[in-house]
Amino acid sequence: MGIIELKGVTKAFKKSRVLEDISLDLREGKIYGFVGRNGTGKSVLFKLICGLMIPSSGEITVNGKILKNGGFAEDIGILLDNTGFMPRMSAFDNLKSIAVINNVISDERIKECIQIVGLDANADKHVSKYSLGMKQRLGIAQAIMESPKILLLDEPMNGLDEQGVKDMRILLKEYQKEHGATILIASHDKEDIAELCDVVYSISGGKIRLRDVSQNLSNHNC
Question: What global pTM score does this model have?
Answer without folding.
Answer: 0.92
